[in-house]
Amino acid sequence: MNPHPASGRLTLTGSLFIGYVCLLAVALTVIGSLWAIHLNRETDRQYAERVLTVARSVAVLPEVVEGLQTPDPSEELDPLADRISAATGADYLVIASPDGTRHTHPDKDRIGETVSTPPGPVVGGTEWTGVQDGTQGRTVRAKIPVFSDGGSVNGGDARGRSWATCPWASSTPAPPPTRAPRSP
User: Fold this and answer.
1) To the nearest whole number, what is the mean pLDDT of the chain?
2) Is the model's pTM score more than 0.90?
3) Disulfide-capable partner of 155 in 33, 57, 66, 146 (CB 3.0 to 4.6 Å)?
4) What percent of the chain has pLDDT above 70?
5) Domain count, the chain
6) Does residue 51 fall inside a structural domain?
7) Range(s) of the domain holding residue 110
8) Does 9 map to a domain?
9) Which residues share a beta bridge with 155?
10) Cα 16 vs. chain centroid, distance in angstroms?
């Protein structure tokens, strides 16, 4: 009996070692993929939460609530929106009436026009976050109702950041846009 295997054949120990290495490689690949998916989803969630937090803050500002009730809301709200956008790093901050008429916009020629995406649940007093295509391209955005002192929806604000300027956008394809449901 020859204790050494024939040339080209592995010993049981060698076969087990290769099997363990392959199993470890597969396990690490699966775990790495799951971690990357989780990290991407968590980053999306955190970014949407940041956009939502700023939009909520804007919606309760007395200047915004009172500005929407003036005869010419754009005169008071547009400079305020520009300052807030600059301070928060937002690509845009649009404040609109419940009928969708813009009172602020980064492109001043669009003030007075109807918003490019439906206000959706904001008209009913519900917040919304998602990704939509609009005049600023594909953006991560939050739409928040602005309530009057009496509690009725007096308008809405949408704050967003262009998908192309988001920190993870270079390595992640943009998700399909989410459409806010149209209000009845």
Assistant:
1) 82
2) no
3) 146
4) 83
5) 1
6) yes
7) 36-165
8) no
9) 146
10) 48
